[in-house]
Design a protein that fits this description.
The protein is an alpha/beta fold and 412 residues long. The protein is built from 15 helices and 17 strands. The protein has helices at residues 10-13, 20-32, 46-59, 77-85, 93-105, 112-116, 153-171, 190-203, 230-248, 260-271, 285-291, 309-316, 320-326, 331-345, 392-411; strands at 2-8, 35-42, 62-66, 89-91, 119-121, 125-127, 136-141, 144-149, 177-186, 208-215, 218-227, 252-255, 275-279, 300-305, 349-355, 370-376, 381-387. The strands form four sheets. The chain has a six-stranded mixed sheet with strand order 2-1-3-8-7-6, sandwiched between helices. It has a five-stranded mixed sheet with strand order 14-13-15-16-17, with helices on both faces. A four-stranded antiparallel sheet has the order 10-11-9-12, sandwiched between helices. Helix 8 (190-203) crosses helix 9. Bound molecules: adenosine-5'-triphosphate and magnesium ion.
Length: 412
């Protein structure tokens, strides 16, 4: 089966709201074995919505719409659907009772617009919405399915997961199954990886597709197989994933969207070790990333944000002579930062980062994007230099990613 997603709302077209609904539906349907043919966004305009429904139902088995179901005047998806099917509205007492209950619970009066919201297209099958007032609606025409859902992301997700997909499961058999496996790598770019595994990719059966998904400092390799034989595709994909991992060795740090911070949590807690960080140009971002993972308190003791030279000297005992001879962005300084950090905190391992995040502040010897990272323990400290870009936020993220990866390689 295949699907087209239509998101409705002027706010999406003018960039006020970013269309995350399509991305979520796309990935959820894809995992379920439903192909996405197109994603459309249309304005809050009757004709545009009706035209989008008409052309999409011609092309796809399923058309999913989100948005425009609420009680406000600009929410006109329902009118467009009635126009398209040439049907009228019927008052839905069930929906009214549910909305009344919700309002009673919050001790607030129902407005006239909420009563209007209870008129449903005559041919709609309602999908009960436990997370909000507007129910989802399902329509069948000539073996095609149209489903219209509220725009609010958590209501939409609830209706897809708990109402729509169970309906599909009960009433349709999907001809092909889909199996995905994602290999997480860090430390080399996609072309390097592509060269290394080219012979394996060439050997794969044609029902397995490979996608390279690069981000700052890491590349995800996603293997997707589609076939009627569910066991065959799982075995084949797992087999090739294993061969790719063998070929790439320590570049691989995990599977299926496991993050570097999750990987560090696993390594450190298994070994019973502790970590601290000393951050200059990343301003605490690395600590934020590490502590965004539940359970990080088991190994992460804390961070110093030592932005100025004085803080580096006072707190981390970086020598004044080091700073004046080599500067704050140097191999010598980041190594002394780790040494000072380990003494200050008593942690087993430490990471330090100092760089010129930009866009200003560079010099010919140290251009914007020069970032030094050190990782180590009491016995050994290693430093690495990055030549990043002029984009401040990207540099901060890149430095944090590389620092986590360098520590992973150092410790394992
Ligand atoms: P409501 O009952 O809240 O009016 P609705 O079905 O009318 O729901 P919209 O008014 O279109 O939905 O959108 C409600 C809110 O949901 C928007 O303000 C926006 O924050 C969010 N939203 C809508 N569409 C999307 C989308 N495609 N991606 C992400 N968020 C969205
Ligand atoms: Mg609305």
């Amino acid at each position: 089966m295949n699907a087209i997603i239509i998101t409705v709302g002027d706010e999406i077209l003018i960039g006020q709201v970013i269309d995350t609904n399509s991305a979520w539906i796309g990935s959820t349907f894809n995992n379920y074995g439903i192909d996405i043919k197109e994603i459309l966004s249309v304005s809050d305009d009757l004709e545009s919505i009706e035209n989008a429904i008409r052309s999409s139902l011609k092309k796809a088995d399923i058309v999913v719409m989100t948005g425009g179901l609420g009680p406000t005047k600009d929410d006109i998806t329902k009118v467009a659907i009635c126009n398209y099917f040439k049907v009228g509205n019927t008052f839905s007492q069930v929906t009214y009772d549910r909305i009344e209950k919700i309002f009673a619970k919050f001790g607030r009066p129902m407005k006239e617009s909420h009563k209007d919201q209870c008129f449903m297209p005559d041919n709609a099958t309602l999908l009960m919405n436990d997370m909000g007032t507007a129910p989802g609606m399902l329509f069948i025409e000539d073996a095609k399915i149209l489903v219209s859902l509220p725009g609010v992301p958590f209501e939409m997700k609830h209706l897809i997961t708990d109402r729509f997909l169970p309906y599909i499961k009960e009433n349709y058999t999907l001809e092909s199954k889909i199996y995905h496996k994602t290999i997480m790598t860090a430390g080399e770019g996609e072309s390097f990886i592509a060269d290394r595994i080219a012979h394996l990719i060439a050997d794969m059966p044609e029902y397995i597709k490979m996608a390279y998904l690069p981000s700052l400092g890491s590349v995800r390799l996603r293997l997707t197989a589609k076939h009627t034989d569910e066991i065959l595709i799982k075995n084949k994909v797992d087999h090739y994933a294993q061969l790719i991992c063998q070929e790439l060795g320590s570049l691989v740090f995990g599977f299926d969207d496991q993050s570097l911070e999750e990987t560090l949590l696993k390594i450190f807690t298994e070994k019973g070790l502790t970590l601290t960080t000393a951050e200059s140009c990343t301003g605490g971002y690395l600590a934020h990333r590490l502590t965004s993972i539940s359970g990080s308190s088991a190994y992460f003791l804390g961070s110093t944000v030592t932005y100025s030279n004085e803080m580096k000297m006072n707190l981390l005992k970086v020598k004044e002579s080091t700073l004046s001879a080599h500067g704050a962005v140097s191999e010598e300084t980041v190594k002394e930062m780790v040494m000072g950090l380990l003494t200050l905190t008593g942690s087993d391992y430490g990471i330090s980062i100092s760089g010129i995040a930009g866009p200003d502040g560079g010099s010919p010897e140290k251009p914007v994007g020069t970032i030094w990272i050190a990782v180590g323990n009491k016995n050994k400290i290693e430093a690495y230099k990055l030549n990043a870009t002029k984009d401040r936020l990207r540099n901060i993220e890149y430095a944090a990613n590389v620092a986590m990866n360098k520590l992973r390689l150092f410790i394992s």
